[in-house]
User: Fold these one by one.
Assistant:
Number 1:
Amino acid sequence: MWMVEGIPRPGLAGLRVLDTVSVPLLRGSLGVVFVWFGALKVAGTTPVADLVAGTVPWPAPGVLVAGLGAVEVLLGGALVAGRFLRPAAVLVMVHLGGTFLTLVVQPAVAFRAGNPLVLTLTGEFVVKNLVLFTAALVVLCADLRRGGVR
């Protein structure tokens, strides 16, 4: 094992293990988050129902939130199962891209005093989706490289 600036660096075998498990772990964790958040929406217990309804004012808020939750559960399930990864990853990215509408449609709930550099709790909740979007992109690229079953 090498030492890089005092930090142990895994050997070649360790890197192979990390390379083998990192994308499946990322895919699975992203899927779990989607299933969990989606299930909260379907169950009517999500804390973001008003935020979603205020960002997309159609259809009726209950229908919108529950429908979005059902889609999130399906997408998360596909990610966890490792099936239909290409369409699931693309739809996850589209969905996450849509969450940024909150910053445009409801800037008062996302930014403090209208300052786009100072986020509220809601703004932080939305902006963290950049990481989830990138995770879905990594999953998509890994599946494309692997040439997985569609």
Number 2:
Amino acid sequence: MKIAFIGGGAMGEAMVKCLLTKKVAAPQDMAVSDISPLRRELLSREYGVSTLADNRKAVTNVDLILLAVKPQNLPRVMEEIKGLALEQLVLSIVAGATLSSLCQGLNHSSVIRAMPNMPAQIGEGMTIWTATAETEQRQKELAQTVLGALGKEIYVTDEKYLAMATALSGSGPAYVFLFIEALVDAGVHIGLPRDMAQELVIQTILGSICTVEKTGKHPADLRNMVTSPGGTTTEALHQLEKGGFRSLLLEAVAAAYKKAERL
């Protein structure tokens, strides 16, 4: 499988690394086109992939063209490679770029749109993706293999779910990191050393996530198992609910979704 990356930024690099780690592709199977000489030098040195500055050259004789550029750079990139993707599959991870805009901009119909999230950088990502009706089954299987190297992936037939996933899983790591930061700060506030507070918080969150995943129980049932009547957890949860924790989170995701729809 020959892959051409257009864009070698953080997510492009993450995908290169994951594909190599999971042995989905070898260094000689990948080429990365990027405008930055520094990025090209780093990617070549760290991963042994070929790098170049010419997008048109990058997309020749490949099976998959992967668009990983910033949204503001996409129109220029599409103009450069328009009409060059004949039998190739085009996979875009560009935020806000719809299937119709990609097909029109590239004059191409075999297009997949995906929304990975930041933990893909360590192979623990969550990606939701969809494809045009013209995309062949073998091409979907190719995309599934590539996206599966980033972590878990979900295929959907309706593109509307990508904006929703952008608000939930795409932006979600930021919500979780903020929660971790606030919980560590709370531990420090009551007198714990910061390194101890951080270790307590991280393992508590990891253990809680694994419990949800492995038991299959509803989070509310698990929460009730921790919450004794009149106990410390009850008091803490009362304060969270009084502060609107649940409704604030809902409003935050809804706001992110509205923003994603406007992109």
Number 3:
Amino acid sequence: MEIHGDRPLDPAARRRQLDAARGLNGLTAAGSAKADATYTGSDTAAVSRLVDILKNMNPADLQRIDELKARIADGSYRADPEELADLLLGRSR
């Protein structure tokens, strides 16, 4: 850990120093700017599956989700802790 004055170097500044020392100055090997995220083939497949699930959702489910969002936003939704625990544990009431 580097110390500058009486306090350590900011972690973000330290990361920039390390990247510069490694030659990672924000450019890829091709010399273009880095992307914000890197996706692999498995990520793309997972996103594709999720998009398909969303496209095929029952409109009644979407309406229920909208109703719950509205109740949460206006403060009228109250969760039952025991019911939530049962759902998380796979038990039915």
Number 4:
Amino acid sequence: MNNLLNEVVMISRMAGSAIMEKYLDPDNQVSSKSDNSPLTAADLAADAAINSGITSLGYDWPMLSEESSKISFNIRKQWGRYWLIDPLDGTKEFIRRNGEFTVNIALIEKGIPILGVVYAPAMDVCYFAAVGVGAFVRRNGEVKKIKTNTQVEGELLKVVSSRSHSDARTEALLEKLGECFCVSMGSSLKLCLVAEGLADFYPRLGPTMEWDTAAAHAIVSCAGGRVCDSDGVELNYNKSNLHNPEFFVLPRGDEKLLDLVRS
């Protein structure tokens, strides 16, 4: 698993290079998908790079990507282990040129993310994890092991929220939490901030898809956290409907925040 994780990190960096070529191109074109969400040439270039890289590994595990999401559930439900990919998470951040976009690659086994890589090419920051290996971040050329933060009583709660997808319900929840330190971030980096212990809590009440969360979910889990609904049930993958329910990211064993959410 450790060797496989290193291979996937390299693939994510290849995809990141493909993205950055488009990011630095002033003529990069933006079109729309069928749901009117933005699609850039960088999405397609990264998807092609990941497909090529994963195929070269020689495994026969199928791939489900945001760009190939029309695969029938009748086919998908037969998958025991498969790759779940978002070649460019945070397309709005890419278009706004704030650097907060990522390559997300996850390996799912029986609905559970067992390996995940989240690479932010504009920042050259890579989060990566696998079951039995641990969770890590590579930043400024240095690799360190990461873990979620257990909040000390009396300390200000650190909450991360979406830069591009705020809503009234989330604002109401933040107000209910009382005085806290809030930081906005794009893409799956929000989950990674909790995994690294730089944030204590990430509530997501708006819509997301399975490929938006799977890679970072693996990282959070391996770092000692959880990605769950208000009842504490972990997100599951390869459902007939690929939408996620609303979810919360926090350290494992922290029930106070979920009690507050439920109330």
